Amino acid sequence: MLEKKAAQADHAIIPEIKNRWSPRAFADKEVEKEKLMRVLEAARWAASSMNEQPWRFIVARKGDAHYDKLYEGLNKWNRKWTWTAPVLIATLAKKRFTKNDSKNYHSWHDLGLAMGNLSAQATHEGLHLHQMAGIEAETVAENFEVDTEGYDVVTLFVLGYQDESRLEELEERYHEAELKKRERKPLNEIVFGEVFGKNPEWLNL
Ligand SMILES: Cc1cc2nc3c(=O)[nH]c(=O)nc-3n(C[C@H](O)[C@H](O)[C@H](O)COP(=O)(O)O)c2cc1C
After folding, report:
1. How many Å lie between the centroid of ligand 1 and the Cα of residue 81?
2. pTM
3. Domain 22-181 is of which CATH architecture?
4. Protein residues with CB under 6 Å of any ligand 1 atom
5. What is the pLDDT of residues 5-18, one digit of tens each?
6. Domain limits of the chain?
7. How far apart are the C-alpha atoms of 12 and 165, rounded to whole Å?
8. Which atom of ligand 1 is nearest to the CA of 23?
């Protein structure tokens, strides 16, 4: 855990949130199967609209025959650093409710909740992940025979043990972000009361 990467939180938050961050340099170390199972289990227990559980995951560990097929789904920028990580996972969302085939407008939202659970569990296990929108979703769909009428390929993410010493093996452009403090908008930019854009009084007391 890099101390400087811990959230400089204005209010006390649980360690699983405070200590989560998105590294690019990962140790050359496998993720234990039990830990991988536990992070996926955490995703499984997220809330979802109508309990649809629209999330799906395609998991590839380095050394798996299908690892390269999943790696092809990264865009060229993300290919420059993701190779240090031992696990690569694609996230997908089911577009329609199984029950009545109506459009599920919250499937990406619910996948995000599952990812929040997964992130918290990973942090608890001493693992880190780095999620990516910079992907070629069509390539993932094609390589894994995904029914794109039914499912969106949403992101790819890598999972593993963060290792600062591995940074030397990455292009210099990635070094600064890996070491700098994390920043967030203050609560008064995102929390409103009686009118959108206006903070509730209690927020600034
Ligand atoms: C949906 C999503 C897409 C992202 N896409 C990329 C990406 O394509 N490449 C990348 O290097 N980082 C990507 N990130 C990582 C973000 O840049 C990172 O989470 C953000 O800067 C906040 O940093 P932190 O996670 O360390 O707090 C993505 C994160 C999310 C949640």
Report:
1. 13
2. 0.97
3. 3-Layer(aba) Sandwich (3.40)
4. 21-22, 78, 131-134, 155, 182
5. 999 999 999 999 99
6. 22-181
7. 30
8. 26
